[in-house]
Specification:
Helix content is 68%, strand content 0%. By secondary structure, the chain is mainly alpha-helical. It comes from hydrothermal vent metagenome.
């Protein structure tokens, strides 16, 4: 063996020694141990490998939120059948949610399903006895159904719950007007208008009734 061959042999031994030392040291990730981000949105790869990243997942709305959104958009478009379907599905997912039941009752009323709307608003009041809007809506529906004594009771209750809300007086006045109780209706229209001067309908009814009652 020449001196040159000996030098090459020794160099090869040194290279193999360094290689195996590195291989079995802790400088390399252990087999079976994945590289993981320390935070949910920490990037791995950076500029050199932007495709190798962890990122925060997009938060998807819940199925319930999706159904309510469909219902609202359907009502805006006038598609009451689609709104009804969406709210029925929402009601299955959350059976005792007054907000969902109120929307459902509103749609049934708009579809002229007065009996169904009556039942749903009654359900709302079982869950939320102090819901003045449900009281007023139920009063209007009961009047349409000819159940006027109960209608008046609910109108009075809506005013009791929120005496500063003009439409409650206006709704009650409409019921009394239809029952030909014009003096009482006039006072309620005047009360509604005093609370909200933008309520043009109340002003118009005041003008009409003053000529009749006088």
């Amino acid at each position: 063996m020449t001196i040159f061959q000996l030098i090459l042999f020794i160099s090869a031994l040194v290279i193999f020694y360094i290689f195996f030392k590195k291989l079995f040291s802790e400088d390399y990730p252990k087999r079976g141990v994945d590289f993981e981000a320390k935070q949910a949105d920490e990037q791995i790869g950076g500029i050199s490998r932007p495709d190798k990243t962890f990122s925060k997942p997009t938060v998807r709305p819940s199925r319930l939120d999706e159904l309510l959104s469909i219902a609202d958009k359907s009502v805006e478009k006038g598609d009451l059948v689609e709104a009804k379907k969406a709210l029925q599905s929402a009601n299955i997912l959350d059976k005792e949610n007054p907000a969902i039941i109120s929307r459902y009752a509103f749609v049934l009323n708009a579809m002229n399903d007065l009996v169904g709307a009556k039942e749903e608003y009654s359900r709302v009041l079982e869950l939320e006895p102090n819901d003045d809007m449900a009281e007023a809506s139920l009063g209007n529906i009961l009047h349409k159904l000819g159940e006027d004594d109960e209608a008046i009771s609910h109108h009075k209750r809506s005013i009791e719950l929120d005496p500063e809300y003009a439409p409650h007086y206006y709704n009650y006045a409409n019921t009394l007007y239809d029952l030909d109780r014009l003096d009482e209706a006039l006072k309620l229209y005047e009360k509604a208008y005093s609370l909200d001067s933008d309520l043009k309908e109340a002003k118009d009814m005041i003008s009409e009734l003053k000529s009749k009652v006088a």
